[in-house]
Amino acid sequence: MEKLKVVVVSNDIDAKINIKNLLNDESIAISGFLEYDSMTNLKIFGYNPDVAILIYDRREGQIYEIAAQVYEQLQGTSVILLSEDIDIDILKKAMQHGVKQVLPLKTTSQELKEAVYKSYNLEKKRLSDNAACKNTRSKVICFFGGKGGTGKTTIAVNTAVQLALSGKKTVIIDADLQFGDVTVLLDLDPKDTIYELSREKGDMSIDVVKSMLSLHSSGLDVLAAPKSPELSEYINEKTLEMIINTIRPYYEYIIVDLPPGFNDTTIAVIENSDIVNLVASVDIVALRNAKICFGILEALRQRDKIALILNKSADGIIEKKDFETILNLETRICLPDDTKTVLASLNKGIPFIMGMPKSTISKLIQAYVKTL
Ligand SMILES: Nc1ncnc2c1ncn2[C@@H]1O[C@H](COP(=O)(O)OP(=O)(O)O)[C@@H](O)[C@H]1O
Ligand SMILES: [Mg+2]
Q1: Rounded distance, CA 15 to CA 21, Å?
Q2: pLDDT for 265-298, tens place per residue?
């Protein structure tokens, strides 16, 4: 077996010698001893070790930055932190910055070797998990419309949940940055949102995005909208484009729920989507609005991606075929007006596709999802 390459970082020469003695093992090779300075992370990158052991010294605030940079940019290298005393604060910060193991400085040889092997294996697993998902052909599907209240969010959420329930690796991004309500429909209380993600320093990576996601019981990953409307200012079209491109290789389906109307961010999402679901309720105002949206999407050269989704269909003057004739587009799905089912699911915080899978509206979405 090839030896595991380890680098040790500390400003204390005795501590380094101590680690060298503790790691006396035929399967482990110490390839470098480094000090803390402005180049430490670059030097670690240069060694490209399997494990970097950072010895914590309270004067070294940069230690967490180094750990985070190694975690994000040097896939295959795991970080172990050794500290004279360990408290909750150190443990919490270490975890947040991608450190795999935290050990007391006065550790035994066996404990240290076990930590080296364990963190090496954890990092290998992270790499293979990422590789397994990577390069799956992903589809980005957004739900759009010129009007609020047509059912974009309701249909986006139920579609996403059904995809996740069928075992597809799926994420939903709530890109209604001011009034996003995806987490309300899913009864989730997210810690982090797209806002916290946009405030992250450094390059965006799949690990950073994943750390901001909430997991729904269906297996669906959720990137929530900001918790307050004014925070939407901090997120622009570049952020959304970057998020979609970063997660694309890791998901089979990326569902994006959009706010009504055209602005820089909705246009960026539309341009980065494979399918643009134009959602309209079946009434005269919605028909006029859908026609205007259709014209704009055509001008943006997005016509080929458009799929028409009709919602809240009931007996009335306007029918599905009026939409099809005027837009010269076939309807992908036409969902009935079913306040009872939709409201009950809202009140319970369980999407109807899960809570009432036998209802007509659920069956129509299940059939639609099979065609995606
Ligand atoms: N098929 C339907 N039947 C009855 N009510 C519906 C239906 N679809 C959506 N609704 C309700 O219409 C309102 C608007 O839906 P929502 O999904 O939030 O629309 P949007 O995201 O387009 O603003 C919500 O109260 C929702 O519960
Ligand atoms: Mg909505």
Answers
A1: 10
A2: 999 999 999 999 999 999 989 999 999 999 999 9
Ligand sitting nearest the alpha carbon of 155: 1
Instruction: Please check whether residues 308 and 185 belong to one and the same domain.
Output: yes
Q: Which of 46, 42, 14 is nearest to 31 (CA)?
A: 46
Residue 270, domain extent: 139-370
- Is 120 in the same domain as 182? no
Q: Which residues surround ligand 1 with Cβ inside 6 Å?
A: 145, 148-154, 311-312, 335, 337-339, 342, 346, 361
**For the residues 93-118, what does the mean pLDDT come to?**
91
The minimum-distance atom of ligand 1 relative to the CA of 336 is 1
Last residue of a domain, one of 133, 168, 191: 133
Tens-digit pLDDT profile for residues 143-173:
999 899 999 999 999 999 999 999 999 999 9
Strand 253-257 and strand 214-215: the pairing is: unpaired
Q: Which atom of ligand 1 lies closest to the CA of 313?
A: 1
pLDDT at 135: 56
Q: For 307-318, write each residue's pLDDT tens digit.
A: 999 998 887 788
In total, how many domains does the chain have?
2
Question: In what helix (H) or strand (E) does residue 243 lie, and over which residues does it extend?
Answer: helix 237-247
The CA 328 to ligand 2 mean position distance, Å, reads 26
Question: Which H or E run contains 116?
Answer: helix 109-133
Ligand 2 center to residue 150 CA distance, Å?
Answer: 8
Residue bearing tokens 């950072």:
54
Contact 305, 172 (CB under 8 A): no
181 against 85, higher pLDDT: 181
Q: Rounded to the nearest whole angstrom, what is the distance from the C-alpha of residue 176 to the centroid of ligand 1?
A: 15
CA 205 to ligand 2 centroid distance, Å = 27
pLDDT at 133: 60
What's this model's pTM, rounded to 2 decimal places? 0.69
Q: Look at ligand 1, atom 4, and give the residue with the nearest C-alpha.
A: 339
Q: Which atom of ligand 1 is nearest to the CA of 155?
A: 17
Strands 4-9 and 51-55: parallel
Average pLDDT of span 94-121: 91
